[in-house]
Amino acid sequence: MSLVLLVLSSCQFKLKPYEDDLSLPSYQVQRYDRLESRYLTTGDFSALQQMNTDYPIETRTLIEKMLQLGSIEDRDIRTKFLMFYQDSTLQSLINDVETEYANMDDINDGLEKSFKQLEQWIPSMQHPEFYAQIGALDQSIVIGDKSVGISLDKYMGENYLLYKKYYNYNQRQQMTRAYIVPDCITFYLLSLYPLPNFQSQPQRTRDLHFAKMMWVANQAMGTHFFRTPYVHVIAKYMKAHPNVSIEDLLKSEDYSKIID
């Protein structure tokens, strides 16, 4: 899966419609994609206005960082944005995404369960907000300042016809609905616990660092979703060291003690 890590901040405070109801999940995915779809398929300017008003950071990230269409301040940026998606393939993709993800209750439930568990293990963890968007087959997960963007166009299923033109089978196996929650956990943890000097680190160290996040994701979800050899190494290490907490594991940058 692909990831873009963007450290963005905003002084705006957005009141969610469910924030005054404690009985509802606190980790609901905001449906930014629906506004985006409305504008890009109908040209409804009110939808774009709402995108800019309610989701200014998300819109800037999409247009400037992901699609790289120019500055959000450009006079013709809304036209560029609209025209970019007029390609028939992208129009079909938008419609398919909105059909496939008409309901995201399973995703909300998975995020709620997993991140509530992570909160218990990592009390200092900031509460991220989640939103869904439609990219152009770019990044799968976008990490911002306490936010996680989910590009639904990258999770349409291994047999989605469009994918077969651009991705091999191994890649397509990871482009399914089932990967959304695991990817959100893994990449958010990576943003909180980055590996210093990542590019200069030995490959084994990089593999173990990523596997560490995957193993924690497994624990948070209560499944064995990720089953790579390096995840198995982390599992063996933790079983042999029951006094090492999950937070200690995440904070540690010493991989010399984790042997295969």
Describe this structure in words.
- The chain has twelve helices and five strands.
- The protein has helices spanning 32-42, 45-54, 56-66, 77-84, 88-100, 105-121, 163-166, 169-172, 180-192, 203-221, 229-240, 246-251, and strands spanning 3-5, 29-30, 129-133, 141-143, 147-151.
- Strands 1-4-5-3-2 form a five-stranded mixed beta sheet.
- The radius of gyration is 19 Å and the shape is elongated.
- The two termini are 25 Å apart.
Descriptors:
five-stranded mixed beta sheet; disordered N terminus; 7% strand; 260 residues; alpha/beta; 5 strands
Using the alpha-carbon principal axes, give the shape: elongated
SSE arrangement, N to C: EEHHHHHHEEEHHHHHH
Q: Kindly, what is the distance between the CA atoms of the first and last residues, rounded to a whole number of angstroms?
A: 25 Å
- Please tally the helical runs, counting DSSP H or I stretches of 4 or more residues: 12
Structural class computed from helices and strand pairing: alpha/beta
Helix content: 40-55%
Total strands: the figure is 5
Beta-strand content estimate: 5-15%
- Arithmetic mean of pLDDT: 90
